[in-house]
Amino acid sequence: MKLPAGRIEGFLRRPDPAASTVLVYGPNEGLVRERVGRLIRTVLDDPGDPFRASELTVDAVRADPARLADEARSLSLIGGRRVVRLRQATDQVTAACRTLLAVPDPDALVILDAGELGPGSSLRRLIEGAPNAAALPCYHDEGRDLSALLERLLTERRLQLEPDAKAYLLDHLGADRAITQSELDKLALYLDPTADGRRPDLRLDEVAALIGDSAALGLDDLVHAAALGEGAQLERCLDRLLGEGEAPVRLVRALANHMSRLYVLAGAVAAEGSVERAIERARPPIHFRRRADVKAELRLWPAPAAAAALGRLLSAEIACKTTGWPAPVVCRRAALALSEQAAAVRRAGRAPAPERS
After folding, report:
1. Which pLDDT score, from 0 to 100, does residue 357 have?
2. Domain boundary pick from 137, 157, 176
3. Which residues does 114 contact at the CB level (< 8 Å), separation at least 6?
4. Angle, alpha carbons 50-54-58 (nearest 5°)
5. Residue 36, C-beta contacts closer than 8 angstroms, at least 6 positions apart
6. Nearest to residue 335, comparing CAs of 240, 215, 216, 229?
7. Is residue 328 part of a domain?
8. How do residues 288-347 score in pLDDT, each as one tens digit?
9. How do residues 167-201 score in pLDDT, each as one tens digit?
10. Is residue 357 part of a domain?
11. In terms of C-beta density within 10 A (0-12 exposed, 13-18 middle, 19 or more buried), how is residue 94 classed?
């Protein structure tokens, strides 16, 4: 079963005894580690107990597919429930996990920690469909979730921030739970507490000088920033992705793919007569976190405008490959032109800003 976000915290405090296998996966590596650690501590006081804790690798399970099930059946020499952890699980262990799930009443809690697994992942589909297993997704902290997390972490560290400083944190953290916590620890270390233990309010310039930019910026953020006309966010995405060595032609292609999808969706809106219905029926499905963005983008990009933008992006891709012009410059100009067109439509009052969660 896949746990909805509202049930994950309760499950971590008291795991369902029927779910003897738990998959913890997602792009937020720090959150994956945090949740795995919490699950282990529901069984073991000492996570390093050699008699009750066992760790396996994907290579070990591939070499001996029955080993995972054998470990789950094994009893501790000193009594008590055991924990078996399979690190960096991938679809390569799906067959071994299928055998594991067939074991009746295994003695151990089996934890599979994994990175990002797409909806088509065989391992993820197996765990989500099994009545004796649970899947805990760990997405990037953003929107209301990030705001609530920051409030909790700031309270725990007795930190007070001016509104502008808090807004800066919301804009520059969220890619990884462990990094977010580490950056706030840095702020707490920077400030000496007063006599009552309270720290003075942090100003924007202090926060900006101390905090690194660990926001979760990827191709998805790039294409939506461009399509929504969010120039500052688009510049951040371009700087991050190009600075990390991403191929410019790949960024242009991602933008082209997104405009192509908006073109198809615009056609569906014209046929269905409803933006919501077109988004709901889109294949592949649009992630729930992006539906408000896509809804706003469809107001900015009717089919003719999306088709024209797609043509310009295809020309930019050809230019990246054949003209000898600096590909990063071609990519940046194409992306910014897209963003400016969307921003111009919004400034003209023909489309509202997207609703943010």
Report:
1. 44
2. 137
3. 23, 24, 25, 26, 32, 88, 89, 90, 123
4. 150
5. 24, 85, 111, 113
6. 229
7. yes
8. 778 899 999 999 999 999 999 999 999 999 998 887 889 999 999 999 999 999 999 988
9. 878 777 776 788 788 888 888 887 766 556 566 67
10. no
11. middle
- Cβ(207)–Cβ(165) under 8 Å? yes
Which of 49, 46, 61, 45 has its CA nearest to residue 98?
A: 61
What integer is the mean pLDDT of 227-239? 91
Count of residues making up the chain: 357
Torsion of CA 67, 72, 77, 82, to 10 degrees: 130
State whether the Cα torsion 44-50-54-59 is positive or negative: positive
Q: Quick one: 36 and 151 in the same domain?
A: no
The residue written with tokens 């082209």 in the block is 256
Same domain, 40 and 121: yes
- Pairing mode, if any, of strands 53-56 and 21-25? unpaired
What distance in Å separates the CA atoms of residue 123 and residue 247, rounded to the nearest whole number? 30
- Average pLDDT of the chain to the nearest whole number: 87
Question: CB neighbours of 306 closer than 8 A, spacing ≥ 6?
Answer: 259, 260, 262, 263, 266
Question: Does a cis peptide bond (omega within 30 degrees of 0) precede residue 284?
Answer: yes
Residues 27 and 95 in one domain: yes
Which domain CATH number covers 23? Answer: 3.40.50.300
**Structure tokens belonging to residue 313:** 């992006």
Q: Rounded to 5, what percent of the chain is helix, strand, coil? A: 60, 10, 35
pTM recorded for the entire structure: 0.58
Quote the CA–CA distance of 150 and 355 in Å, as a whole number: 21
Higher local confidence (pLDDT), 67 or 242: 67
